[in-house]
Amino acid sequence: MSATAAVALDKASALAGELRKLPAFIRRDFLVAWSYRMAFFSDAAALFLQAVSFYFVGLMINPEVLPSFGGSRVTYLEFVAVGIALSVFMHLGLGRVATAIRNEQLTGTLESLLMTPTATATIQLGSVVYDSIYIPIRTALFFAVIGIAFGLHFEPNGFLPALFVLLAFIPFVWGLGIASAAATLTFKRGTGGIAFGVAILTLGSGAYFPLDLLPGWAEASAELNPLALAIGAMREALLGGTGWEGVGRTLLILVPLSALSLAGGFSLFRAALRRERRRGSLGLY
Amino acid sequence: MSSSSEHHIPVLERAGDDPDGAARADAASPLIRADAVSRVYGEKHALVDVTLHVARGEICGLIGPNGAGKTTLLRLLTGLLDPSSGTVRILGEKPAEATRRLRQRVGLVPSGDRTFYLRISGLENLAFFARMHGLGRRAAVAEARRALAEVDLVEAQHRAVGEYSHGMQKRLSVARALITRPEILLVDEATHDLDPEGGRVVRNLVADIAARGAAVVWATQKLDELRGFADRVMLLSGGRTMFSGTLPDLIALSSPRRYVLRVRNGGLSGESLAAVADRLLGDLGTLRTLGEGESSNYVLALERDAILGDALAALARGRMDILTCHEERSELEEAFLSFTRSDSVDPQA
Description:
heterodimer; A: mainly alpha; 0% strand; B: alpha/beta; Rossmann fold; Alpha-Beta Plaits; 2 domains; six-stranded mixed beta sheet; 24% strand; elongated; disordered N terminus; disordered C terminus
């Protein structure tokens, strides 16, 4: 075996070893979450109550003012359900990714983790992998519950394309979250900035109202807003039944944006960690 | 500590190592090497030109008052902090650029209690950290159970760590360090809030690890716990090395001036006895009551250059029966204070 092949094999083996650690993070975070059982149930109840509120709001809204998808009109609840699901997904995902490392720092476990032979990227990824599974499941349950409870109609042939949009969107949220975690590690406080960023992205995403109600410049900027792109594509898939045709263009934009976000997030976090080691403030918060 | 003042004890061979070959050659060089290390935080010099070498099987006690630089030095050794100048090598590698293989071989018992996931059990915590060391789930649980048994926490293994006492959390911390059977063990104030028995248990565990061949750095403020435990001590104050050597060497440098005496003299006691004793002692020192009322305990404060024997003889000549006599502070404490008092001489100045 050549030296290059041996190095490649070593790297592959190390990568496999790191990936094998991820289930340990999932188990740890599930056990921690399960120890707060009440939060599980209150979260589910809050989600359902939110849907009920939008159902009554929807009764006041004329479907004529809403855009059509796949040539058919939709109710406001159908329209807003996709927006709620994805914006809440982004809010929770971003918040939890950003605070996962911060929480490790606050509980004093970050340094203990860094003392183990675990790559920084694994620690970052591991800290969010549980939420990355839990939040999509929560989103799917949300669709299922309000679909059944309020008789909403989602196109079955849109489920798979919608899932792909979600999968393409997840790394974008991770990347932003990890970048926020880097900012938090450096500036010690950053949740306000995260909330502001999420609010801006949500406002310009058309999650709760049609984008054409926005001023022209804001509507145009939605073309570059990954949340708006993901929501639009998922509405086309789930409500319009346009299948892969409706999401193809979005996936072509989302995938590179997500890759960029993830790469940027990891780079910023590594730089933040190096800086903290240099300054000696890793344990400070 | 400079290289010239190094005092290496005979190093122990690790069980299972080849006694004639690589292990012996390896044992000759320190596993922990910090050379002329300094660390500056802004304007503050937390460590100044500190050198520390620790060999295989050796326990080095790192002592000093709060803010002496002990934790900073340990953080430099773990790679959680970069030195401003100087070099640190752990098992020949820079800890800040540590490979996974190096991290596998280093154990840390941090000073804080909050280094575990408090909502989950001790067993799950240890299994998680074992998995971070690359073990599969089954092996991780087995290792976690073994480590818990070593620190006598089997009965509490399924309880959330948040319900553990300080002592139990410390033992759990040692158990975590035991999981990988480390060659380097760094212990930061492991016993500062433990009762004497809890402290003894933790020290015994660490001594066992050292006996298996690990190089141990044990940072503490409890001087007396180093007696019979540490092979060498390094005393830090204000970020500088004030002493480096063996405990007997450190004790030899102490010069206690105050002693607690239990004295009996016929009808005299308390202040009246002290007044008579003062006249007997003359220029040798003074005797003051310890406690209130008719106590028979006194503090004898010797004048500079006075000899304890002369003072005791003077009291005995005045028909004072000296029932007991001991130093007011341990000789270790005396040595510690003599090096760390603000008016002490800086040996590196």
